[in-house]
Design a protein that fits this description.
Layout (H helix, E strand, L loop, with lengths): L19 E5 L3 E5 L10 H22 L5 H9 L14 H7 L2 H10 L12 H11 L3 H4 L5 H10 L3 E2 L7 E4 L12 E8 L4 E6 L8 E6 L3 E5 L6
Antiparallel strand pairs: 1-2, 3-8, 4-5, 4-8, 5-6, 6-7
Helix pairs in contact: 2-5, 3-5
């Protein structure tokens, strides 16, 4: 099971410190500067004006981003069931896509290593990221290759919780520590079974495939909630 976790040499995830953050295409959070006191003049007044414009532009951009449904994301994920890695742990279209993406450059700069290392790396997070990309929802499903950074991205954007919902991105900690830094694996919630288990669709399972699984919620560290239109 530990093979599912891609651990970087270093983790240096940027955090949102001031203002309101919105999730933009590219999987990053853009911080809208907090507005200054309105009773100012001269250079400070000009700064307030620029901040107001920046906030308005950011809000307009957020509103213009397309939304998708949880069901669309799950339908795309389900069509991948059965896809398997090769003997080297690679060879999937999810890994190939990530290697060729701009995000690979960003995560190598953050975590170290080489872009080509992702070609045979554990790919559970790459699978979920690929599904979000195919659904046109990269900006809200996110994209990363490291499960811990992926989870923190949701948490930093106020979209983290403990309730299973269809289409939520589910993060597992096989040790049950409830520590976000101990997350081992990631998938998508298909449904809450109401009996202490959830049905999921996951890539890079213990069988090295995309599979539908039933998991106990005791193994769940938390859920990331994309902003779906349903």
């Amino acid at each position: 099971m530990a093979k599912n976790r891609l651990t970087p040499k270093k983790h240096n995830l940027a955090r949102v410190l001031v203002g309101a953050s919105i999730v933009l295409a590219g999987g990053a959070a853009t911080t809208v500067p907090a507005l200054a006191d309105s009773h100012v003049s001269g250079p400070q007044a000009e700064s307030v004006s620029k901040n107001t414009k920046a906030e308005a532009q950011a809000q307009a951009q957020a509103q213009s981003l397309p939304k998708t449904s949880a069901q669309r994301v799950l339908d795309i994920a389900a069509k991948q069931i059965g896809i398997s890695e090769n003997a080297a742990g690679g060879g999937t279209k999810f890994q190939d896509w990530y290697v060729s993406s701009e995000r690979a450059k960003e995560t190598v700069a953050r975590d170290g290593g080489r872009i080509q290392d992702y070609a045979n790396a554990p790919w559970c997070a790459m699978f979920v990221s690929w599904v979000g990309e195919q659904a046109g929802a990269r900006h809200t499903v996110g994209w990363d290759a490291y499960t811990v950074s992926y989870a923190k991205w949701f948490a930093d954007n106020g979209r983290w919780g403990q309730t299973p919902k269809p289409g939520a991105v589910v993060f597992f900690d096989w040790g049950g520590s409830n520590d976000i830094d101990a997350i081992d694996h990631v998938g998508l919630v298909k449904k809450d079974n109401g009996d202490g288990t959830i049905t999921t669709i996951e890539g890079n399972t213990g069988n090295g495939k995309v599979e539908e699984r039933v998991r106990p919620v005791s193994q769940v560290d938390g859920y990331g909630y994309p902003d779906y239109n349903d």
